[in-house]
Design brief:
Length: 762
């Protein structure tokens, strides 16, 4: 059972939930009257944020982090941006892992070129470099950096180490650049939601099952959006820390800001095993703590779960799915038709056999699935079994070489291989479409983090489409033992016998370059031919003229749709090269439209006659001059840029490329109903685009122009009602607004991007 409380509540002595409407009970339990403002300070999250806040004002936080982490899709752009902004060294431990573009089969040398760039940056600026196949980013950080009371920032959305007492946040690269420049992460103090765990999971239930049960309850209603999930209650101690890590990393899929768990002796044991017992301290809520909401989870009632395509919140109990296969799978097929937009068929109902649902592929991998406990349990289920010689296949990716070594020494790897599983190295590829791509029209079940459309390698425009369902390693292993027929782990009786883990970091000592505080500024960065500098971007002018270049009316637009993952990410270090793929799987005409607008803006900046280049603009400006106070407006005062309308963009990955790719080919603004995540909105602002929002339906079409006068002045106002005009045969007024921006965010947008802002400060 997962129950959401309606409104806030007090937690007394860590065990008693008292709804706010019944606050008088607090005094009866403690002898003290409930003081909401004081009780807010009783959460674990508040104490950690207070310790890292430099503003002196807990309403408006300016946070400095203890460490940072990036992987090889993001670190080149971050370092290039920081270098262009004047960075001379890494001021805090900065870990550069190579777990996303580990394989070098696509794009020639460019992946390994980025790895060499990362190593050279670690040597020059004093960083920590983890070579390919050694560890996935989040497992390395769990093993080496997460500790009680710390804060870690990562340029990957699944930066979550709450089960180790660390508040970790995944953000776009611009926020990491700020830390490298000794600036701060600025955010209003977030609300905190208690995730009250009660009872104990059944032996056949894994961390993914619990995570999916929570995600299914809170995602669609936004219950924890941009808030901190604080895991409390007696159920926490019913699970080992390695198990908790698997739940915690999935909190990203709720759209929360961060997470934190109470700690106990098992947390201490985990850190001690990893040679960092000194990083332990007990974390618990105060005697009375106030939460802005409560999610009550009875762990004993959670059953094996599945998240069907195309989102981790599309959850069902496996038993429920198997009892209603045809109806439920037909609904997914209808959703698939919308995703493919008629360009590729996808079928699930035809995979129903007299034995059940036949799956084509299974993967246990990454920061969620590749943990020691998960792989051990999968090996238990498959020992002496046969995955078969048919269409079904199983791949297992241990999350780090130390985990791999331990599994090998204990014989679990041999058990899996003898059953027919393929064992691979630490790699995040299956999570974002660059590893174990399933067959066309195939269904892959995965203990990974995400199952968004096109994330597994689909190319609907080429007639290729497959899909992913998320499951726990235990049910995946049960399915594999049944020849690929979808099977709940509850059907087997082999769970719970997980030997103690022995950590051996010899491989890290031999292969990881640890250069923190050892940087040598005389060393050169090593550039491959695909690594390019950021193009110049214009500062904001008094007025702006936006051309609508895409209009997306889907309920949610993910970052994978804004800039597809998979093989396109091979161009991540080439801003203009990567930008060619912007919206390529959602609106293939967008890039051409935006580049045409960008060409006009470049001509304007160069002082050329833009009316000669685009005669339509002369008519547009003639209309603009009819507006009150705009009779003297000229192109020299009016930046021209492209604009995307999307209902709710930015769910998913923290990759800043989702915004930078828009910007480098002319993007100047987005108009939305709301932003799916803070991190995408921050990316938009850090790349100099204006994060407009509007109520109501968009009364404009692709190709229309929207004029916003006096935008510089508007940014200094209350942002609540910004007049804009759709310019056509008739002029239609449009009311836009912008959610709160910090002073620095306003300066960044005015400067044209974070790079310009930092250069201006020199």
């Amino acid at each position: 059972m997962v129950k959401l409380y309606d409104g806030g509540a007090y937690l007394v002595n860590g065990t008693e939930i008292v709804p706010e409407a019944e606050a008088a009970k607090v005094e009866a339990l403690t002898g003290k009257k409930a003081e909401k403002s004081e009780a807010r300070k009783g959460t674990m999250a508040y104490g950690i944020m207070e310790a890292h806040n430099t503003s002196g004002n807990m309403e408006n936080l300016k946070l400095k982090f203890d460490a940072m982490a990036s992987h090889d899709i993001t670190f080149v752009g971050i370092i290039q941006t920081a270098k262009a902004s004047g960075m001379e060294k890494f001021p805090i431990p900065y870990v550069l892992t190579n777990c996303h573009n580990s394989l070098c089969a696509v794009g020639g040398t460019i992946n390994e070129d980025d790895h060499m760039f990362g190593l050279s940056a670690a040597k020059k600026y004093g960083g920590i470099y983890v070579p390919p196949h050694i560890a996935v980013i989040h497992q390395y950080m769990r093993e080496n950096f997460a500790g009680c009371g710390k804060m870690i920032l990562g340029s990957d959305s699944h930066t979550r180490y709450g089960a180790l007492g660390t508040m970790a946040i995944g953000e776009g690269g611009g926020e990491l650049v700020k830390q490298l420049l000794c600036d701060t992460y600025d955010v209003s103090c977030p609300e905190v939601i208690a995730i009250y765990l009660d009872g104990k999971p059944n032996p056949w239930v894994g961390p993914q099952d619990i995570a999916l049960a929570i995600i299914g309850a809170v995602f669609k209603n936004g219950y924890v959006k941009n808030k901190v999930m604080e895991f409390v209650g007696p159920g926490v101690s019913s699970m080992k820390t390695d198990f908790r890590n698997g739940i915690d990393v999935m909190t990203t899929e709720t759209t929360c800001l961060s997470s934190i768990w109470r700690t106990d002796e098992d947390t201490k044991e985990f850190l001690t095993i990893h040679g960092r017992g000194g990083d332990y301290k007990e974390l618990n809520p105060a005697e009375v703590a106030y939460y802005d909401g409560v999610v009550y989870v009875d762990l004993s009632t959670v059953k094996p779960m599945i998240a069907l395509p195309f989102h981790p919140s599309n959850t069902y109990e496996i038993d429920e799915l198997n009892a209603n296969l045809k109806d439920i799978l037909h609904n997914v097929e209808e959703e698939a038709a919308k995703v493919a937009q008629g360009k590729a068929p996808f079928h699930l109902v035809d995979k129903i056999t007299d034995k059940g649902l036949q799956v084509q592929q299974a993967v246990i991998a990454g920061c969620a699935g590749g943990n020691y406990t998960n792989v051990v349990e999968a090996a238990h289920a498959l020992k002496g079994k046969n995955t078969g010689d048919g269409e079904f296949s199983l791949s297992v990716y241990p999350s780090s070489q130390p985990v791999f070594i331990n599994l090998t020494r204990q014989g679990y790897i041999a058990d899996l291989m003898e059953a027919g599983a393929i064992i691979r190295t630490a790699f995040c590829g299956p999570c974002f479409g660059a590893g174990d791509t399933p067959c066309n029209d195939g269904l892959s079940i995965r203990h990974t983090t995400r199952n968004f459309p096109n994330r597994e390698g689909s190319k609907p425009g080429n007639g290729q489409m497959s899909a992913v369902a998320l499951m726990d390693a235990r049910s995946i292993a049960a399915t594999a033992a049944n020849g690929g027929i979808l099977t709940s782990a509850e059907t087997l009786d082999c769970w719970g016998d997980v030997p103690e883990y022995t950590y051996d970091n010899t491989v890290y000592q031999k292969r990881v370059y640890n250069g923190y505080q050892k940087g040598d500024e005389k060393k050169d960065l090593v550039y491959g031919p695909n690594i390019k500098d950021w193009p110049e971007m214009s500062p904001l002018t008094d007025n702006i003229l936006l051309k609508v270049c895409s209009r997306i009316l889907d309920p949610v637009t993910t970052t994978d749709e804004l800039i597809p993952s998979g093989e396109t990410s091979s161009f991540r270090s080439n801003p203009l090269g990567l930008a060619e793929f912007t919206l390529s799987r959602r609106d293939p005409e967008y890039v051409g439209r935006s580049k045409a607008v960008d060409k006009l803006e470049k001509a304007r900046v160069a002082g050329e006659d833009i009316f000669a280049a685009e005669p339509e603009l002369e008519k547009i400006f003639a209309k603009i001059k009819e507006l009150p106070g705009q009779a003297d407006v000229e192109p020299s005062q009016t930046e021209i840029g492209s604009m995307i309308y999307a209902v709710k963009p930015g769910d998913g990955s923290a990759r800043e490329q989702a915004a930078s790719c828009q910007r480098v080919i002319g993007g100047l603004a987005n108009i939305t109903k709301e932003y799916a995540t803070k991190r995408y909105r921050s990316n938009v602002m850090n790349w100099g685009m204006i994060p407009f929002q509007m109520n109501g339906e968009p009364d404009f079409a692709v190709g229309d122009y929207i004029y916003v006068p006096n935008i510089l002045e508007a940014l200094d106002g209350d942002l609540k009602d910004i007049k804009a005009y759709v310019i056509g045969d008739e002029i239609r007024e449009l009311s836009l607004y912008i959610a709160d921006m910090t002073d620095d965010e306003k300066k960044i947008v005015k400067a044209g991007c974070l790079i310009n802002y930092n250069r201006n400060r020199k």
